[in-house]
Amino acid sequence: MEAVSEKVETTVTEIISRSLRIDVGKIVAQARLFVDLDVESLDLIDIRYEIENKFGIKISDNEITESVGRNLTQKEIGELLTVERVVSFVKDKINQQ
Questions:
Q1: Cα torsion at 13, 15, 19, 23 (round to 10°)?
Q2: Rounded to an integer, what is the distance from CA 21 to the centroid of its chain?
Q3: Could you tell me where the DSSP H helices lie in 1-97?
Q4: Is 29 within 8 Å of 87 (Cβ atoms)?
Q5: pTM score, two decimals?
Q6: CA–CA gap between residue 54 and residue 76 (Å, rounded)
Q7: 19 to each of 26, 73, 75, how far by Cα in Å?
Q8: pLDDT tens track, the chain, 97 positions
């Protein structure tokens, strides 16, 4: 199971790297998508689409951002949504299948 977990982390990091056109080595687990990596809403849509295709899962429009909490402000989401959180979200979605 640990090998699968590492594969998910590596794959999600690679997807983020490609979507944002930044070096994969610059993406760390604690990086905040909107604050540290300058993700914009269209970037997040692209990341979501790539994750869906790669892992064969379906993600609704706001599901990734709502995974950090509901009824949060954009600023709160920006502070809480990290690469690590996205990886955890994807693992949870895979386990729900």
A1: 40
A2: 15
A3: 2-20, 41-55, 63-66, 74-80, 83-96
A4: yes
A5: 0.93
A6: 28
A7: 13, 24, 22
A8: 677 789 999 999 999 999 999 999 999 999 999 999 999 999 999 999 999 999 999 999 999 999 999 999 999 999 999 999 999 999 999 999 8
